Each structure stands twice: as structure tokens, then as C-alpha cells.
Amino acid sequence: MAELISKFEALGLSADKAKEAAANKKLAPTLDSLITSTGQTEFTKPTGMLIYTLATTATKDKTPHADYIVRAIVAGRIASTEQLGAATKFCAKNDPSAEETAFDESCGVGVVVSDEEIAASVQGAIDGFKESLTKERYRALGKMLGAVKKLPELRWADSGKVKAEYDAQILA
Question: 76: left (phi > 0), else alpha (psi -120 to 50), else beta?
Fold first, then answer.
């Protein structure tokens, strides 16, 4: 068990969370298998958290290609929870090793949304809500944020940056 705890801490889990994961009879073998399949012993915190998230959501029947996904995470092709969600959905119905280009497209691999693109998209969405914002004031903010997050051009954008830009433009 100490070996598992050490492995799980290398993902960036706290000591308590690593102990909890090691004691979990369903999670521990899945997480251990995913870590082993990477061939690595050290991970950056974001990479480790994506691997942990994959392990907590993966099942053999729902995610038959979890090893492929974890290799994509370690290679930096999958870098966000949004991409991870898209990857698990894709792999539930397709073989990613046979359809690598389709996998990359459906998961946003290589898509980078710049700060300027985020700002322009958020501004466009806010402009579309000007009348509603004037009428409803703060009651419209949640609806507007939901609309901004659903913009297709922001699908692969860092959601923290989108929220920060939204807040900055609303307060401006």
C-alpha cells in the first residue's frame, strides 16, 4: 500500500488523498494501471490531475482505450478536462489508434485559443445581450455567462481565462 501511496503522490495528490485512493478497491488498480502504462514516475500537477480524473471516470466498458488517452495526456495532446471529456466520449465509440486524426479533431488536440480571441468572443456575446443586460441587470449575468461558455469558438479555451475575461468586461 505504501508503494501505491507513493505512486499516487507523484501525480500531485495530497498525502491524505493518495491514502484514500490507495484504499479504494475500484480506483487503486485503475489508477495504478494508468500510471504504469505511462512508463513515468514523475508528473506535473496538471498532468497528474488529468490522469487521476481519467481513473475516477474510466471503466473497462465505457473507456476501453484508457491507455491511449493516458498516453495522449502525458504527451500533452490532452491538456484540459474539456478535452479529456471529449476523448472519453470518442473512445467509447471509436478506436483512437485507428482513427488518430478524427480523435485529434474531436478532442481539440493542437487547438489554441488566444487571449485576444477569448476577449473578442466574450465582447461579441456581451454585445448581443446589451438590451437584456440593461433590462434585467444582474439577473441576466448567469444566462450570459452560460451563453459565453457555449460559444463554439471557445470550446477548447481555458475556462478560467474565459471567466476572468467575462468578469473583466462586465465590470468595465
Answer: left
* Nearest C-alpha neighbor of 129 from the set 169, 102, 89: 169
- The predicted-structure confidence for 33-84, as pLDDT tens digits, reads as follows 999 999 898 999 999 999 999 999 887 766 778 889 999 999 999 998 889 9
Type of residue found at 109 = V
Query: What is the four-CA torsion angle of 162, 165, 170, 172, rounded to 10 degrees?
Result: 180
The Cβ of residue 107 has, within 10 Å, a number of other Cβ atoms equal to 27
137's grid cell: 441587470
DSSP 65-102: THHHHHHHHHTTS--SHHHHHHHHHHHHHS-TTTSHHH
Stretch 122-143: mean pLDDT: 80
Tell if the pTM clears 0.90, that is, is over it.
no
Residue 4 is placed in which grid cell?
501505491
Task: Identify whether the C-beta of residue 110 lies closer than 8 Å to the C-beta of residue 72.
Answer: no
- Tell me the C-alpha distance between 77 and 138, whole Å: 38
Helix-then-strand count for the chain, H and E: 11, 0
Q: How many residues appear in the chain?
A: 172
